[in-house]
Every structure is written in structure tokens, then in C-alpha cells.
Amino acid sequence: MTTRHHTKLVHEGNYAAEVDVYLIEDNTGWSPYISLEDAYKLDDVRDALRRRDVKSASRSARVFSLTPVAV
């Protein structure tokens, strides 16, 4: 079993966040997958962005504000 670093993007409303997780690779058909702890981290960041709580989301991720571009 090996692990490798990966950045997952979470988008919610006018915010996006980069969350660092580790992908776990093994010889099963479910590979690659993330740990339960990393899954909870993604959920926590998504929930914080839904509440517009950027401070909480910033504890586990790099948070960006999205601005629409008029064409």
C-alpha cells in the first residue's frame, strides 16, 4: 500500500477551497481512495463554506473567493 499527496477542490457558492489529502493506492479494485479522516476534512470544509465561515474553512484548506466575469 502506498500513499501520495493530492489536492482536492471543493466548490460551494462563491467560494472554492483547495484541500490537501492523501490518496491511498493498493492492489484492490477500490484504489485509489482517501482515508476516513480526509473525507471528514473535505466535508467539514464544504459545510463551513456553506455557512460562509471562511475562518473555519481556512484552518484545513486554502480558500478562494470566486468573482463572476461579465462577457
Describe what you observe in this structure.
- It contains 2 helices and 4 strands.
- With 71 residues, it is of the alpha+beta class.
- The protein has one domain (2-65).
- The longest helix has 15 residues, at 36-50.
Output the radius of gyration: 14 Å
What is the mean predicted local confidence, pLDDT? 95
Strand content: 35-45%
Task: Based on Cα principal axes, name the global outline.
Answer: elongated
Low-confidence stretches: none
Secondary-structure-based class equals alpha+beta
The count of helical stretches stands at 2
| Strand element count | 4
Tally of individual domains: 1
Describe the structure concisely.
By secondary structure, this protein is of the alpha+beta class.
Short key terms for the protein model shown above:
single chain; 71 residues; alpha+beta; four-stranded antiparallel sheet; 4 strands; 28% helix; elongated
What is the strand and helix layout of this fold?
Blueprint: E1 2-12, E2 15-25, E3 33-34, H1 36-50, H2 54-58, E4 62-65
Antiparallel strand pairs: 1-2, 2-3, 2-4
